[in-house]
Amino acid sequence: MMSPADILALLPLLVIAGTAVIVMLAIAFKRNHALAAGFTLVGLTAAFVSIYAAAAIVPRQVTSLLIVDQYALFYMGLIITSAAVVAVLSYSYVQGREGRHEELYLLLLIATFGCAVLVASSHFVAFVLGLEILSVSLYAMIAYAKDLKLALEAGIKYLILASASAAFLLFGMALIYAAAGTMEFSHIREISLSPSDYALLIAGIVLTITGIGFKLGVVPFHLWTPDVYQGAPAPVTAFIATTSKSAMVALLLRYFYLSGALQYPAVFVVVAIVAVGSMCAGNLLALQQMNVKRILAYSSIAHFGYILVAFLAIGTMAVEAVSFYIVAYTVTILAAFGIVTVLSSGNRDADDLEDYRGLFWHRPVMAAVFTAALLSLAGIPATMGFLGKFYVLAAGANAAAWPLIIVLVVTSVAGLFYYLRIVVALYSASPERAQIPVPSRTGASILVLGLTILLIWFGVYPAPLLNLIRATGAELTVASSIPSQKEFWMASRLRRGAVVHPDFTEGIGEVDLRSRAAVARRLVGKDLTRKSRNT
Questions:
Q1: Shared-domain flag, residues 432 and 519
Q2: Same structural domain for residues 345 and 490?
Q3: Backbone angles phi, psi at 58, to 5 degrees
Q4: How many C-beta atoms surround the C-beta of residue 284 within 10 A?
Q5: How many domains are contained in the chain?
Q6: Looking at the structure, do residues 458 and 517 belong to the same domain, yes or no?
Q7: Does 492 lie in the same domain as 377?
Q8: In the chain, how long is the greatest CA-to-CA distance?
Q9: Mean pLDDT in each 10-residue stretch from start to end of the chain (535 residues)?
């Protein structure tokens, strides 16, 4: 039975779920698009405010399924905020279109609830429940605008491929349970395994990467990304690109760091291959596109490859780099798809490159906003994207992951081409055939302008955001849970009987070695503290 403190810790999730019920009842009693959108925004605002109430009693383990800590609350805040932005964009997008639109907000709330469950998951059961709540909602959201030619096709593709990836994910969880006898993330790394169980565990972890990789849209699980981005309504695409992927990144960090999965060489190599493949394929395939939404889709593949570089660094800086990058990416993509939403007409999305040719001469402010978003994605200074990429490079350099850094730099340079191609179209001569039809969407226009201000503000003065990330990420600090790459290398040398030079241990305190020795001993079979003293 849950205590009042448990209920308070879960308050953001309960508010989101309650809002979904209220919106559903409101739709049943009276269909009103503005009323449904209003209830959604009020509920998401209340959920965001409730984070401050929950923060007073965290960290708190709520049953064995969920852990609510500062890290979870930070990502819940990011998810709720991005969902609220998507709700505003959705209202502007569907306003004036034929048909009933109230259920879109209900699906949005349910999907947001699934994301919130994911970021607080500490158990495979909560992982699956959150993932399926999110996925089932996305099936309907992608195909919601049935009047769009490609929407239904995109929904079916996502349904089939997501179902297949879920099967791999569940099979991987079954193998992990067979090997470790537990489904709690933190208990997996405490198990002493026989060689046969070790093989099952590695196979299970690799299969779970399939499920996570599909949601992130990284290579080789990326085939759905361009078609779904192009076919789904622009606000739904924004939700997929930001809210759902932010939740999966939060889960990825917690799952791999608590379970210690990244310390197995085979798993590390698999994730590194995925990162390199994503950076290369995402940027190269984007060069061939003339559709803006497909360009942003392939761009997202590359960006999550960049995130995996920081993820593989393992350490405090890695957690901070990943968190800052995902915030920067969320703000940037919401601004970019906000422009697509504002410029979309009643019967189609403004996703063709020709739709943006000469935009500056008709809507200079919107052109400037889109330019800022594209420059941020390219990593140009004075934007959040630049600092995010710099932070990723710093984390990679700190872990001496030089091959990954080289690939990141080279592919980032290649990525400049397709971003600048859109920028050139924005400021080129306006075609004489027609002016771009722009519906009156004042609310969405003001919102994307605000996002652009944030994009530049945190690009110039990121200290408040960095301080928040450092404070909330402290509970997931790798240094307090698993050995760093440096310590693991030393432990492996000790296992083979090799001598570790005393200078190598400089900067690793005796207390730190003692606190992490048990973890290293389980994986390399020697007492790290005793051996390091002898050397």
A1: no
A2: no
A3: -85, 155
A4: 14
A5: 2
A6: no
A7: no
A8: 80
A9: 86 96 93 91 96 89 89 95 95 80 93 96 94 94 84 91 92 92 85 76 92 92 92 93 95 90 88 95 92 94 95 87 95 94 82 88 90 94 93 90 93 91 88 55 86 94 92 63 46 45 41 38 38 39
Query: Which residues on adjacent β-strands are paired with residue 121?
Result: 66
Please check whether residues 527 and 457 belong to one and the same domain.
no
* b/e code 306-338 from CB counts within 10 Å (16+ = b): bbbbbbbbbbbbbbbbbbbbbbbbbbbbbbbbb
The kind and range of the H/E element at 3 are none
Domain final position from 465, 480, 495? 480
| Whether residue 371 sits in one domain with residue 512 | no
The residue whose two tokens read 């026989």 is: 194
What Rg value do the Cα atoms of the chain yield, rounded? Answer: 23
How far apart are the C-alpha atoms of 137 and 109, rounded to whole Å? 9
51: containing domain: 4-480
Tens-place pLDDT, residues 48-97: 999 999 998 888 888 889 999 899 999 999 999 999 999 999 998 888 67
Query: For helices 265-286 and 292-313, what crossing angle results, to 10°?
Result: 160
Q: What is the per-residue pLDDT across 186-237, written as a single tens digit (0 to 9) for each?
A: 888 777 667 778 888 999 999 999 989 999 999 999 989 999 999 999 999 9
Question: Could you tell me the two tokens for 260?
Answer: 């210690």
Paired with 123 in beta bridges are 184
Q: How far is CA 443 from CA 86, 145, 341, 501, in A?
A: 12, 21, 11, 63
